[in-house]
Amino acid sequence: xxxxxxxxxxxxxxxxxxxxxxxxxxxxxxxxxxxxxxxxxxxxxxxxxxxxxxxxxxxxxxxxxxxxxxxxxxxxxxxxxxxxxxxxxxxxxxxxxxxxxxxxxxxxxxxxxxxxxxxxxxxxxxxxxxxxxxxxxxxxxxxxxxxxxxxxxxxxxxxxxxxxxxxxxxxxxxxxxxxxxxxxxxxxxxxxxxxxxxxxxxxxxxxxxxxxxxxxxxxxxxxxxxxxxxxxxxxxxxxxxxxxxxxxxxxxxxxxxxxxxxxxxxxxxxxxxxxxxxxxxxxxxxxxxxxxxxxxxxxxxxxxxxxxxxxxxxxxxxxxxxxxxxxxxxx
Length: 331
Fold this sequence. Notes:
By secondary structure, the chain is α/β, with parallel strands linked by helices.
């Protein structure tokens, strides 16, 4: 038996994702989950554990090790009226399906003159910080946010993990959900009054008056910790969780900068051509005369991600880097 919304309290990010999938499977016969090891193994990160026993192999479908093949099958199922949830183990493997995502999922509605929507949801784990070395530590959300025709979202909280899936499945366009690997074990109280997420708007996670810390996904906890440290120094930091990376919520970003007049953009992607660069450019375009200091960016070092723990930590944006960037803007 699943839990009802009223009795959901203490949970984890992983369990919130599982409950979202369970709810989707129960509420709509068109929904099914497919991917590598999502069935008997319970998913590479344990998100789908127990769902095969509950819903059977027709609804929880293990696939061959061929991202191009099973992502293409998911696109075909969506074109046929189904609502597939396709799981890709980690974001680096999504590159093997990039042709399907870019040339098929993102374009078919346009190329068919609006006749062929592709309502597929593609979930994948992203990010570093777990000593998985250079081939399994990418943060490529910014690459996908570059593509017209798809929606890109990044749940950073337990509530968003729980309530982003339903609106994603209802979206007529393909939706890519990026789940940061460092968040799966995060635990907390799930707000029983939470409702499906508005995928068009960012969220102000902490109000502030002196500087805006703008981020998403796995970097949100670091930004919130940085805000706590800055508060101890009488610097009031507002924390903005972008939530949806395509399309970006320009209005929330602009409103935050109008309140604080300074901004730090935190992005685990590489600095060059990054999502942080896009957000910084939009702030310059829309809020230039509101700024009292140049926009600061905190990104990963432009190297293949090291395996060694201390080198990996040095390559990634850390709380201390966010605090230092805030001081450069404020001091």
